[in-house]
């Protein structure tokens, strides 16, 4: 792998490949991402909102949900979906190419497999995951607002005033950076497991399992580390409410 990376020529990276991979990571994953965000938003709100109503803290509900979704839930849920849908796909594609000797064919044609296959997948993941994260965040807030209105009769105006009073550009940027890092790590792990597959089709399944499991574990660990350094010293967003 290190020898492959050492001879990368960035000028030979195929833009068409990048756009094709961006379509796989982004638009093709959008429906499942938004559907998951919609129901996670409602489930989370169903458990949290009634406690704030009991504390007579209705004006704080939107702000609390905004912080929770933007800083933690949306980035990590989007990353999990990417691992299950896209990361496993990357591993399966590259593993199949390895055992059918298509990677060797690229060498014969004078094409670096990293530049042609791996870099477009990495760039697509880095570029599209923040977009999916922000769309997931917006969907979760909308579903939370809907549930608050239908179940708890909370005026959407009160909800969204609370949302915008605790929504800061710094949090949006940090959430996007976290998603970019997740995209980089997931695509690197998925492609590495795919390219390390040899000999038989049985190893394709084993590589996919190893890719998904290792990606999940590393993303969860990384999520804690990033959250600690990004948000541990941040003042409470509820002070302005």
UniProtKB/TrEMBL annotation:
<feature type="transmembrane region" description="Helical">
    <location>
        <begin position="53"/>
        <end position="70"/>
    </location>
</feature>
<dbReference type="InterPro" id="IPR003453">
    <property type="entry name" value="ABC_MlaE_roteobac"/>
</dbReference>
<protein>
    <recommendedName>
        <fullName>ABC transporter permease</fullName>
    </recommendedName>
</protein>
<comment type="similarity">
    <text>Belongs to the MlaE permease family.</text>
</comment>
<keyword id="KW-0812">Transmembrane</keyword>
<feature type="transmembrane region" description="Helical">
    <location>
        <begin position="149"/>
        <end position="169"/>
    </location>
</feature>
<dbReference type="GO" id="GO:0043190">
    <property type="term" value="C:ATP-binding cassette (ABC) transporter complex"/>
</dbReference>
<feature type="transmembrane region" description="Helical">
    <location>
        <begin position="176"/>
        <end position="196"/>
    </location>
</feature>
<feature type="transmembrane region" description="Helical">
    <location>
        <begin position="208"/>
        <end position="231"/>
    </location>
</feature>
<keyword id="KW-1133">Transmembrane helix</keyword>
<dbReference type="InterPro" id="IPR030802">
    <property type="entry name" value="Permease_MalE"/>
</dbReference>
<keyword id="KW-0472">Membrane</keyword>
<dbReference type="GO" id="GO:0005548">
    <property type="term" value="F:phospholipid transporter activity"/>
</dbReference>
<keyword id="KW-0934">Plastid</keyword>
<feature type="transmembrane region" description="Helical">
    <location>
        <begin position="76"/>
        <end position="99"/>
    </location>
</feature>
<keyword id="KW-0813">Transport</keyword>
<dbReference type="Pfam" id="PF02405">
    <property type="entry name" value="MlaE"/>
</dbReference>
<feature type="transmembrane region" description="Helical">
    <location>
        <begin position="106"/>
        <end position="129"/>
    </location>
</feature>
<feature type="transmembrane region" description="Helical">
    <location>
        <begin position="24"/>
        <end position="46"/>
    </location>
</feature>
